[in-house]
Amino acid sequence: MNRLSFVLLLLLVRVLHDIIYIYAISPIYEYAGFYLQIDEAKLFWSYVILLCVGSLNPQSHKPSNFLLAMLQLFVLMPVISLWALKDESSVFAAYVTCAFLVISALLRTPRLRIPTVREGQSVGTALSVLVLSVAGYYLVSRGATGQFNWNPLAVYELRETVHETVFQGLAGYFIAWVAKVIAPVILAVALYRRWWIVAAAAVGVQILLFGMTGHKEYALYPVLVVFVFLAARSRVPIQHSFLVAVTSVLVAALLVCLSDAPALARTGSAAFVHRTFTVIGENHFAYFHFFQTSPFVFLSNSVLAFASQYPFSAPVAELIGYGRYSAGSEAFANAGYIASAYMHFGAAGIFGYSVLVGLILRVYDSLIVNRIAMSVGVPIAAAAVFQLVNADLTTALLTHGIGLSLLMLWLLGNSGEAVERRTALP
After folding, report:
1. Nearest-angstrom CA–CA distance, 337 and 339
2. Tens digit of each residue's pLDDT (9 = 90 or more) over 346-388
3. Phi-psi map region of 115: left, alpha, beta (phi>0 left; psi -120 to 50 alpha)
4. C or N terminus of the chain, fewer CB within 10 Å?
5. Which residues, 6+ apart, have CB-to-CB distance to 340 below 8 Å?
């Protein structure tokens, strides 16, 4: 029953997205390439694919089941939706489908036996203080504290300035680690122990980082952490609660889009769904098409740049996004690990990266199940793994904090936290 309800919810989200795309997103953003060219055969098979791949997600309380569901929702669903609605490439849709089949298969492998760290909580606390201190030093010394912005319409201008003045060098790592790992860790632990003042302080840090950097997601991480924390404490699998919440948001967005509400409200609702789902699918296909005629990057834009020469004069995301919304306009078409894998190594890269992602999700299981409270561990993992939706795997591991989140979970394991033991998890 759990599996059936999960698949039905996933299909319902897809239906809602498709309706909003047809009646709201495409009419508004057709000029930017979000046209409507439905292929009926692809439409049928895209739903079959979502049904089959979704049914392979084991419906238990394992952290990896929720993390996989999150990636299915924000990557697989938008990609195969646009495959049908825009008559996009069947080859790339097949690549993405196979990527999720690989991950699903790896989640059935045995968990690793990872030793705990004596005094790990003390080490984790010291590491958190160090990262917070270094990030604070960079923000103050480079003038970020003097350029707060709370206007959502001006975030891109601030973000461009901040990246040129504040995020250079190691500063970018430490600030991102605070927003995507350290603050979520503090918030999850504080909620679990009912340290309300500490929890409020963690949320305040995220809001301040949003105001100083212009990164909207920094203000949204507390919402994700709090929701997953609450969902993890219920008997319902987290992925079900998550899909119910997303479905409710999309129903509300659809009602606004199709109503007589003010134009700003209708456009805003369409833009929210567009940015949350549709752009992700579009960017994946854009990467595929770009590298049909351009040379692969072979990790030359990463820390392994010494091994090969980068073939372009600008970042790939900038080249692909340039001119999308207006002639000569700049935009960064950031894409997730699958598109980035294709950017580096083609189809072989998608397979290799998917193997690594599957193993990483299984490591999260090994570091959380029966070692730390699920309501603490899963929110920390979710905030980190979500980076795979819009970032290269190597970037997500280093800059965006997946590696640091794994380290923090290792340090927290069996470190005095009560373990929420459910039925035996494989």
Report:
1. 6
2. 999 999 999 999 999 999 999 999 899 999 999 999 999 999 9
3. beta
4. N
5. 287, 353, 391, 392, 393, 395
Side chain identity at residue 373, one-letter code: A
Q: Where are the beta strands (DSSP E) in 220-367?
A: none
The DSSP 8-state label assigned to residue 311 in this structure reads -
How far is Cα 282 from Cα 29, in angstroms, rounded to an integer? Answer: 12
Q: What is the value of pTM for the model shown?
A: 0.92
Token pair of 228, please? 């997953």
Question: Would you call 287 helix, strand, or coil by DSSP?
Answer: helix
Retrieve residue 227's tokens: 């929701």
Q: Which parts of 56-203 are beta strand (E)?
A: none
What HEC string does 368-410 produce?
HCCCCCHHHHHHHHHHHHHHHHCCCHHHHHCCCCHHHHHHHHH
Contact 308, 299 (CB under 8 A): yes
Gap between the Cα atoms of 105 and 358, Å rounded: 8
Q: Which residue has the tokens 């950017």?
A: 343
With tokens 């927290």, the residue in question is 412
